[in-house]
């Protein structure tokens, strides 16, 4: 016999009992005009804002089941709710542990607790990213002092503070040079410590501003302490009870109290700096003024993190959980733009507010990405390498890759629907094309600063105390190797030559005859040593004499012959006289970064473009690539100090590249008579081997990781 028994429908099941200690408080009127209420859980000191339908359901909870509650709502109010919608409220209450536990639910609570705690690794991760340390229970102390601070909340003090701010701003404007110089003077280790101590004091006043304002409005302040956001200390005050306040103006006052306290300190400190004489009080006033202005404007007012600016914006818009709601709306907008799902928005807002929330969510994501990358870099810098790398990976994984992974998981579950949507197919095609740009090999066109010069050249400089005797070669004349280019003389050189020759002849006679003369035998060995020194001096004189009669080491054309040269004139030491340009053609020298040098090899084609408008444009071929990075830069024209593109610093007369660069030698494939006679600075464009662009970034990241990890 077939059984006709059926399971009881959820809507007909008895409603679970609410926890008896919960308090239902009146709330503010919402932006759409409907009333709201606040549900307070005193055990956890948590508050839940509920809308009108939820309040009406809770008011009829005694009816026993969802169907009865829905029927009563339809007959007694203008609301029309189904039993399933009532059960959704039951599910909300259950998820937030607002219902009395049923018999035998201890195992479920334990499992839920283990799920929230997670594994040991998850616990360490969460507590590394954020944890709180309560330090004080200030409620009683605040209650005794709050009535004594009425003056600071008066209109008179407000006008006095505005006057102090205006006076101080005028004085700072008049003494701006002195104010700016004081900022520079504090940029030291002792100044950083002073700023740290001052910031701690200001943040203490900031939190007291929140606490006193909340206490004056009748709220309890159970704890104050320090929270650590990625190991960065942040003061906090537990002001959750402001949700009991029914007026939005009062909640805004509590949230804004910290910023207003800092701005008040800044205003009076700025005036104090302007009026006080030099000394410790003036320095303290300066630290308070600068620290509070920066801390308030740059940090606390930002709505992109959960600081005061965020809560101010949230209360002003009357949108609790602003970030979560804006993020949900932005994710919905992104999916609609990418895939065209046609799914209704998670919440309905007027078009201007919806657009603003979406843009706010995108701005928050970009801001947080920047901040988290900066924090990750600081974490890496302030820890030992092994720990720093691990914490850096945690930062990037948790704040960057994990949200992306979660979104991709949602897309995966939607794949059966996505593959049938035209817009989704178009977005996937664009994504594949973008991925192909990183994965498909593409031709490389590498650019670098370069110098086009003759393959060989000799610059002739005047030796010391030189006088021109003859000019055997004229400007532009072609000469063969070994040809005398210029003949000079020097009285000093002649004197040295004659003196060295006479000394050598005397010592040579002494060394020769000393072996047969008993009186000279004692000086014979010394004479031989002195004769060797005299011969060395003669060789040095002959080498110097070659500088006064330079000969061509290779065949070429004599260029840049000084027009003032004529026989009989005297020359200054190191004065350039002429340049011998070889017949070997031109040569191009360039320096390529280490990331780009892997993409070129000998035989690759290139083109030289001169910086000068009338300069040559020449086709080239790579003929040589240094295997090691250049330690020095012999071509000063290519350094940024002289208008080039290679970042270099000068030390002891040498140029040292700031980053690894490799010397690349190229030769023209066609001859250019004009270019071969001069040196030209420009740039080269090299056609390197094909390579996926993504491989370059992967190699750079891997190289950075290996270098920093010490592998």
Structural account:
With 711 residues, the protein is an alpha+beta fold. It has five domains: 10-117, no CATH class; 121-318, no CATH class; 320-440, no CATH class; 448-454 and 584-691, Elongation Factor Tu (Ef-tu), domain 3, CATH 2.40.30; 457-559. Helices cover 49% and strands 17% of the residues. The chain contains 21 helices and 20 strands. The strands form six sheets. A six-stranded antiparallel β-barrel has the order 7-14-19-16-15-20. The protein has a four-stranded antiparallel β-sheet with strand order 8-13-12-10, with no helix packed on it. β17 (648-651) and β18 (654-657) form a beta hairpin. α2 (66-76) packs across α3 and α9 crosses α11 (280-300). It is elongated and about 135 Å long. The two termini are 76 Å apart. Mean pLDDT is 81; it is low at 1-8.
Short summary:
With 711 residues, this protein is an alpha+beta fold. Helix content is 49%, strand content 17%. Residues 1-8 have low confidence and may be disordered.
Q: How far is the N terminus from the C terminus?
A: 76 Å
Number-wise, the strands total 20
Number of helices: 21
User: What ranges have pLDDT less than 50 throughout 5 or more consecutive residues?
Assistant: 1-8
Comma- or semicolon-separated keywords:
alpha+beta; 5 domains; six-stranded antiparallel barrel; four-stranded antiparallel sheet; 21 helices; elongated; disordered N terminus
